[in-house]
Amino acid sequence: MKHTPDRTDLRAPAVRPGGAKADACAVAAAALLVLAAALIGTHLQNRYGTLRVGRPPLVGEWMPHLGPGTPAALAVAVAVVAYGPALAARLPWRPLLLAVWGGALAWTWSLALVDGWQRGVAGRLTTRHEYLQVIDRFQDIPATLQDFHAHILIGAPDNWPAHVAGHPPGATLTFVLLDRIGLGGGAWAGAFVVTAGTTAAVAVLVTVRRLAGEDLARRAAPFLVLAPAAVWTGTSADGWFAAVAAWSLALLALAVTGSRPAWTGFGAGLLFGLTVYLSYGLTLVAVTAAAVLLLGVRRLRPLPYAAAGFLVVPVVFTALGFDWWEAYRLLVTRYYQGAGGVRPYGYWVWANLACTVLVVGPATVAGLRRGGAEPVRSGRAALLRDPVPRLVLLVGSALLALLVADLSGMSKAETERIWLPFALWLLPACALLPGPRGWLAGQAALALLLNHLVLTGW
Questions:
Q1: Poorest-confidence range of 8-17, 31-40, 410-419?
Q2: What gap in Å lies between CA 279 and CA 85, rounded to an integer?
Q3: Cα torsion at 278, 284, 285, 287 (round to 10°)?
Q4: Which one of 222, 267, 358, 420 has the minimum C-beta count within 10 Å?
Q5: Is residue 13 scored above 80 in pLDDT?
Q6: % of the chain at pLDDT higher than 90
């Protein structure tokens, strides 16, 4: 029998030390994009009031402040910058996964607590637009799902709050079920989102190791911990959505590279089915799933199992009376009835990208710059063979999905949280950078400044 190589044993690549000037130029260009979005956005908002955000391009208010999480956030940042790269290189794989999750938990919790317990955690998911406002309306879940469509439009009786109307009911049911098992209220909801959301870093790490090799996964590990995205992972429900999507891709990576494709393939499909019932826009995760399949050594074998798993959630929701397609059609109308119909596409189509820069940080910008040059440098033959081009293909698929979401016009503003499921997959590009400590310090500085200068909406 022909031996199939284990993708965790891909030849370790050498990170090229050159290109510092080009990296600096890319980061400077990204900074100018953010500055332009801030200046132009502030002018448009002050003059016309059409952006509907407090601190363009972010949803938030200018409010320099300290909080109980400040000392912890500084301590986590210093520890990861000083010891993260060395620990990522030396720790056995499974302890490394636990360390990444623990580090991401510490970083996300400390940033959330910069705003204090009530404002930063317990109250985040209880505001008038959020899911916890409608828990009592789901006493009879099947009846509510059958009637869900009737409350999506703004003119409908008892119309759903913005976030409930803007998502399939799987998003709201997450918090309904938490309430049913005795974990009701904003504090438990916030704790759940942080705890579950931070596991996405582990899922990304597992996927990178399987598809691009352990060396690159280890180099990416500290950047997955110290991500500026943590500002919005704690405590936006989109952090939970990002984790479900990430684990669907991780299981798919295990299915296309491992010896047991049935269970991992089924699990990947099941979680992807759940993903599209958490957020309509996350159907675009299929773009990255296609890249995972392309990079797998057993591309077709898991597909029947994945397809079977995928059907489970849609069949259940459809049987209970919820029509995904009809709800999405109504959502598009609702979107343009509200802020989506006022916010100018001509500004947000590029300002959304400025939001993404703030979510992924300068190190990711430089990593993407290096990744963009890699296919030209490596040649077509190496794209599916060598670790770095394989990583670039994986990251590039997430970037493509993000760009499609941008061009669709259905993501005007709030992308600092909405695009978390795509942005997390850009972070592994940081594995291509030499001198990781300096870049990690830049990532931490950006997150700390954002969290302490702006009271974010999530």
A1: 8-17
A2: 35
A3: 170
A4: 267
A5: no
A6: 91
What is the reported pLDDT for 133? Answer: 97
Q: Residue 244 CA to chain centroid, in angstroms?
A: 10
Across the range 372-389, mean pLDDT stands at 74
Q: How far apart are CA 22 and CA 433, in angstroms?
A: 12
Q: Which phi and psi angles does 119 have, rounded to 5°? A: -75, -30
Residue 27 identity (one-letter amino acid): V
At 62, which helix (H) or strand (E)? strand 60-62
Q: So what's the pLDDT on residue 6? A: 44
Provide the 8-state DSSP code for 419.
T
Confirm if 65 and 114 have CB atoms less than 8 A apart. yes
Tell me the residue type at 228: P
Does pTM surpass 0.85? Answer: yes
List CB contacts of 412: < 8 A, sequence separation 6 or more. 339, 340, 343, 344, 345, 348, 352
Compute φ and ψ for 397, nearest 5 degrees: -65, -40
Spell out the residues 6+ positions from residue 83 whose beta carbon is closer than 8 angstroms to its own.
Answer: none
Q: Which two tokens stand for residue 297?
A: 């050594």
Evaluate whether 375 touches 81 at the Cβ level (below 8 Å): no
Q: Which of 364-368, 377-381, 387-391 has the lowest mean pLDDT?
A: 377-381
Say how many CA atoms lie within 13 Å of 292 toward its Cβ.
Answer: 31
Chain segment 87-139, per-residue pLDDT in tens: 999 999 999 999 999 999 999 999 999 999 999 999 999 999 999 999 999 99
Q: Give 16: exposed, middle or buried? Use CB within 10 Å, 0-12, 13-18, 19+.
A: middle
For the chain, first and last CA: distance in Å? 54
Of 19-33, 231-245, 373-387, least confident by mean pLDDT is 373-387
Describe the crossing of helices 303-319 and 261-276 by its angle, rounded to 10 degrees: 40
Q: Tell me which residue has tokens 């597992």.
A: 206
Instruction: Give kind and range of the element (H or E) at residue 8.
Output: none
Q: Which long-range contacts (CB under 8 A, 24 or more apart) does 160-167 make?
A: 160/134, 161/128, 161/129, 161/130, 161/131, 161/133, 161/134, 162/129, 162/338, 163/129, 163/130, 163/131, 163/237, 164/131, 164/133, 164/134, 165/331, 165/334, 166/331, 166/334, 166/335, 167/278, 167/279, 167/280
Is the CB of residue 135 less than 8 Å from the CB of residue 184?
yes
Residue 239 pLDDT more than 60?
yes
CB 352 within 8 A of CB 415: yes
Q: What value, to the nearest 5°, has the Cα angle with vertex 98 and ends 89 and 209?
A: 55
* 3-state class (DSSP) for residue 221: helix
Distance CA 193, CA 70 (A): 20
